[in-house]
Specification:
By secondary structure, the chain is mainly α. The chain has one domain. It contains 4 helices and 2 strands; from the N terminus they run ααααββ. It has a two-stranded antiparallel sheet. Helix 1 runs parallel beside helix 4. The protein is elongated and about 80 Å long.
């Protein structure tokens, strides 16, 4: 390998390490937004995160799992950063899934059909109905 090629590879590795740290910071901020349910900030960060991931793949020359495995030993630190980022992403995914499950549970509890209930809820058309659907069949009956 020529000196120029080695310098280019070293420069790419340095840039990739800086971007990997930026990705870690973004994922930590994403988790903070999710914890406080700031979904607008979470959504706003998605485009820049995807752009950052594309830059990382381009710098490392990764086009799939096989090319990631083919990176030389000098990229081991980068791969460790990316494995940590993967774990952080999974943590954020688990938090999202738990919040969705909680919301689904709350919605299900409001859809329990009780003719004596005075609870008013919205139907799919945005109209208020008392204690569920009037005259319609519930999901369990369908």
């Amino acid at each position: 390998m020529t000196t120029l090629a080695m310098d280019t590879q070293a420069s790419s590795l340095e840039q990739a390490l800086v971007l990997a740290q930026t990705l870690e910071d973004m994922l930590e901020q994403e988790f903070a937004h999710l914890k406080v349910q700031n979904l607008d900030a979470f959504e706003a960060s998605q485009a820049s995160k995807n752009e950052l991931l594309q830059q990382l793949a381009q710098l490392a020359g990764i086009h799939g799992p096989e090319s990631a495995d083919a990176l030389g030993p000098e990229w081991d630190g980068f791969k460790e950063h990316m494995a940590h980022c993967r774990d952080m992403h999974r943590r954020n995914e688990v938090l999202i899934v738990r919040k969705i499950d909680a919301i689904r549970g709350a919605l299900q509890s409001m859809q329990i059909q009780d003719p004596t209930s005075s609870v008013e809820i919205y139907d799919r058309l945005g109209k208020v109905s008392r204690g569920g659907r009037r005259g319609g069949r519930g999901y369990a009956e369908a």
